[in-house]
Amino acid sequence: MDFKDIFDTSNSSKLNEPRDKFLSRIFGIFSEEIVRIWCRSKKSPFEDIGRPTIYDELEKTGRGSTLDFTFQDKETKKKYVSEMKCEIQFENFKYLELNSVDQLAHHNKPAFQRFLGIANEPKKYSVKVQGKKMNVDGAILVWGKTNQASIKEICEATNLTNILSVENMINDLIEIKDNNYLEFLNQKQEWINHLFNGLKI
């Protein structure tokens, strides 16, 4: 399974931008849950223990930034805050595949800056998961599609512990025929069919 084959007609003779936008938006509704299903599978080295909220100890506002996941290594029990960026069709697929650290500059909101900050200076921040203060060992980025040749370079430039891709997670789930994943997709397909069948009546 390749994201480009599913979502991207930009280099095709049958360019269909409305279709690409539609599929990208539909996928965005439930893509986070795919990561959680992967974390529960035997293929994943991590489990997801909840959404983390990061607080900057030097700021006096007391406002935290809530990210998408907290990954705990199933073997070492080390914990990592994680943020997911899965923009597929946006700006003509500019951010579909992560190839360069320059692509991260697009994400300039405080939550993502704190995410990058904790990768570099974890002691500057405090983290709570489900209201419980927790020590973390780094930060892991989740992107839609990754270029394996660039991951090491980007991790070195940002001090990220790792960069994972949703595309690879899905391929893992397909490979092992994960029942949770298949049931999840069947449910979403049933809901979509119900919607469009209802709109025809």
Can you put this structure into words, describing what you see?
- The strands form three sheets. Strands 1-4-5-9-11 form a five-stranded mixed beta sheet, sandwiched between helices. Strands 3-2-7-8 form a four-stranded antiparallel beta sheet, with helices on one face. A two-stranded parallel ribbon has the order 6-10.
- Helix 2 crosses helix 6 (166-175).
- It is built from seven helices and eleven strands.
- It has 201 residues and is of the alpha/beta class.
- It is globular, with a radius of gyration of 18 Å.
- The protein has one domain.
- A hairpin with a 5-residue loop joins strand 4 and strand 5.
Can I get a quick summary?
This protein is α/β, with parallel strands linked by helices and 201 residues long. It has one domain (3-200). It has 7 helices and 11 strands.
The amount of beta strand, in percent, is 15-25%
Instruction: Name the helicity range.
Output: 40-55%
Main sheet, how many strands, which sense, barrel? Answer: 5 strands, mixed
User: Which structural class is indicated by helix and strand composition?
Assistant: alpha/beta
Question: Per the principal axes of the C-alpha atoms, what is the gross shape?
Answer: globular
Number of discrete helical segments: 7
* Unreliable residue stretches: none
What's the total number of strands? Answer: 11
Distance between the termini: 34 Å
Number of domains: 1
Order of helices and strands: HHEEEEEHEHEEEEHEHH
Radius of gyration: 18 Å
Give the integer mean of the pLDDT values.
93
Q: Which strand order does the major sheet show?
A: 1-4-5-9-11
